[in-house]
Amino acid sequence: PQPIHLADYQPPPFLVDDVALTFRLAPTATRVIAKVRFRPNPDASPGHDLRLDGEGLKLISAHLNGAEITAQPDESGLTIPAQDLPEGALDWQAEVEIAPDGNTALEGLYMSRGMYCTQCEAEGFRKITFYPDRPDVMAPFRVRIESDLPVLLSNGNPASSGQGWAEWHDPHPKPAYLFALVAGDLVAASDRFTTMEGRDVALNIWVRKGDEDKTAYAMDALKRSMVWDEQVYGRAYDLDVFNIVAVDDFNMGAMENKGLNIFNSRYVLASPQTATDSDYASIERIIAHEYFHNWTGNRITCRDWFQLSLKEGLTVYRDQQFMGDMRSHSVKRIEDVLTLRARQFREDDGPLAHPVRPESYVEINNFYTATVYEKGAELIRMLQLLVGQDRYKAALDLYFARHDGQACTIEDWIAVFEEAAGRDLSQFKRWYGQAGTPRVDVSEDWQDGSYTLTLRQHTPDTPGQPLKEPLVIPVAMGLLGADGAEMVPTTVLELDSPEQSFTFPDLPARPVASLLRGFSAPVVLNHSLSSEDRALMLAHDTDPFNRFEAGRALARDILHAMVLEGATPGPDYLNALRTMVSDEALDPAFRALALHIPGQDDLASSLYAAGHVPDPDAIQAARTTALRLIAEALRPQLQDVANAMQTPGPYSPDARDAGRRALKVQAVSLLARADEGAKAAELFARADNMTEQLGAWGALLAIGKGQEEGAQFYRQWAQDRLVVDKWFSAQVMYAAPKAAAGLVQQLTQHPDFEWKNPNRFRSVIGALGANPAGFHATDGAGYKLVADWLIRLDGVNPQSAARLSTLFETWRRYDASRQALIRAELQRIRSQDNLIPISIDQNS
Ligand code: HT7
Ligand code: ZN
């Protein structure tokens, strides 16, 4: 397939005024009758053919303005030549046949355990009928569904229904990617919500029978999201019904179809016994994210898929703000930055690096990335920091007022900020077009009471983009005195040249600079600080993110020294950790996070950045030793904290109790390294919630124990698909490196291993990504296993296969022997005609 280029964008030659779809559902022969009213686009040149996208459709009949025509579809659609088109508006009608039952790719109309459902973003609608399947063609839809199944749903408001049929009408013009249909034997948990405009909205969460008791948290999160979007962004819901459906077979997390959100069931269903606190937080976040898309994505959509971050970056930013408001801003920020670094920085450093707005793509499904989502959100966070909160709000108000009902671009987005803030943002816009994580190097000078900070920026080359220009980088910073008191409170410096100096005169003593507070820009900051300065920041920084960061930098430096020189953690670090863990003034959730030492992949990345070839086995060994030494040194404090973190009363997934459980589980996990798992076994035996049960079992697995507990866990939860996923993945994540690939192979023989189910596949094969030493085992067994499964999966579900291939994206870091093994596997994958996005060529 040929790449598609942003520069080649042309407006659609025909617009759509109305769509009417009839579905006669049958597993192997569903009939879809589409009636579409087209009119020539006044903004396009005249005389175009009518080109409709369509893939895998059996055309039964086609009519144009009432007359039957013979159309010859090709493999990607059909064309009616311009000379055969009547003047003016066109009434197109087509009947096609499709087979949802055999659709294992889970794009278009497919079946999941007896239920019909759709996934149309990005280009699934063309697998349902012939249509101009592009986001800048927006139309109101009417849908009729004919089926014996009891629940028949589509977008918009219900229009009418009878025995074996239902009709829906969505008055809001939408692109085809937001179309959805669900039919199944489902039950609803229902509620109501009155909007600030006085609209009474019926809320339903549709699940399989038996799952009704696991929907309360999702419903609560939905109502809180609706209130929040009204209060914070002034956005109200705009239909009479909002339906959510939980589906077991789903490629991603969820989908924001207008009025009919479809969710992977793992992001809807929760009970204290079956879901962890982190599952609850994901449910809250994803429910909010999809709901927020109603305005940022649906009412205002993207002109083309290059603009994907216009809706995704903004909606991620909005869900981050919401989660901060619901829980803790500082803890949420730390978690978001850890995710950004683990996923997006990793992407930027590998062969798949691309800008937030890519310039070309071959397969758009491969651009639903951490760069488009998470880095896209960081760009909006920076915009808010640069223009200030009031102007951010004014810009958003202008965006909604000006662009409601439109398909927009990043230019439209930047323009509202330029107008609302009265400033030129052309240099800021480079962030959207330039791939790679900028490095900011710091040097400092202290003379006669004057402190000078010099910042230098540079962005490393990325594949296909060797030349980088300077960006506008907001650096939030403050200065601390030797006693920890703040000499200069948070100030935002704007670094917009390759090098800039900032002077702070008249200071009583040499300060310690706390830079990039709140992680004010998605950059790597190279600021060498002594361990005393880091310890001071860990103890006193007023910025919680930098406080956390100081502890993490200390841990990272120690782990580097352990890997490279066989050093051991010194008393400074252990004392700082001891003080922090017992500091009752600190949020338990923060303490739990600060007790985590950097992970294996994080260390591999930082060692590589420091010019070393990371050895996964040495990293794993250093981490194991460090955890044991920490556990031994902090044993009394960890015991106290584990005992103190009780959560009396009924289970609540709120931030307070979740933070206490996180600290308890983290303390018990560390203690397992010093008490042979005694406390963990005890916690496992009396746990009445999944957070503690799984946390305790994980702690045992991590020290090579937990076999009996694992068997017990399986017996207890064999009937719960989502918990069985956890049972699989925990074993893989904690497997000893040399045994990991063998264990995965063995688990694929388990009767519960359903490889065509994306959740199950990820929990067994994908979990190897969470065990870097296992995946990178020197015999190459991990690479071979992943490649074998990738080849097998690609023919069945190419989207999931492409995602799995990103396990290889860090190949460049490793030694020649591992690189050769990976190269051989990637060549084997390519030789089978697989279109995986990753490649190893000379300049990647
Ligand atoms: N906008 C959606 C992205 C998406 C997707 C979802 C499910 C299956 C396949 C998909 N392809 C793209 C989800 C979101 O960002 O909210
Ligand atoms: Zn989204």
The average pLDDT score comes to 97
Measured by DSSP, the beta-strand proportion falls in 15-25%
Shape: globular
Structural class: alpha+beta
- Hetero groups bound? (3S)-3-amino-4-(1H-indol-3-yl)butanoic acid, zinc ion
Total count of strands: 30
Fold-level CATH name of the largest domain: Immunoglobulin-like
CATH superfamily of the largest domain: tricorn interacting facor f3 domain
Q: From the alpha carbons, calculate the radius of gyration and give it in angstroms.
A: 28 Å
Count of discrete structural domains: 5
CATH domain class of the largest domain: Mainly Beta
* End-to-end C-alpha gap: 20 Å
For the biggest sheet, the summary is: 8 strands, mixed
Specify the CATH architecture of the largest domain. Answer: Sandwich
Low-pLDDT regions: none
- The proportion of residues forming helix, as a percent range, comes to 40-55%
Task: Name the strands of the widest sheet in spatial order.
Answer: 6-5-8-3-2-11-14-13
How many helices? The count is 26
What key phrases describe this protein's structure?
844 residues, alpha+beta, Immunoglobulin-like, Zincin-like, 26 helices, 40% helix, 21% strand, globular, binds zinc ion
Compact description:
By secondary structure, the chain is α+β, with helices and mostly antiparallel strands. It has 26 helices and 30 strands.
Fold and architecture overview:
By secondary structure, the protein is α+β, with helices and mostly antiparallel strands. It has five domains: 1-183, Immunoglobulin-like (Sandwich); 185-268, Zincin-like (2-Layer Sandwich); 301-433, Neutral Protease, domain 2, CATH 1.10.390; 442-517, Aminopeptidase N, middle-beta domain (Immunoglobulin-like, Sandwich), CATH 2.60.40; 718-844, Alpha Horseshoe (Zincin-like fold). The strands form eight sheets. An eight-stranded mixed beta sheet has the order 6-5-8-3-2-11-14-13, with no helix packed on it. It has a five-stranded mixed beta sheet with strand order 16-17-18-20-19, with helices on one face. It has a four-stranded antiparallel beta sheet with strand order 9-10-15-12, with no helix packed on it. The longest helix has 22 residues, at 544-565. It is globular. The two termini are 20 Å apart. The model has no long low-confidence stretch (mean pLDDT 97). The structure holds (3S)-3-amino-4-(1H-indol-3-yl)butanoic acid and zinc ion. Residues 119, 121-122, 251-252, 254-256, 289-290, 293, 312, 368 line the site of (3S)-3-amino-4-(1H-indol-3-yl)butanoic acid.
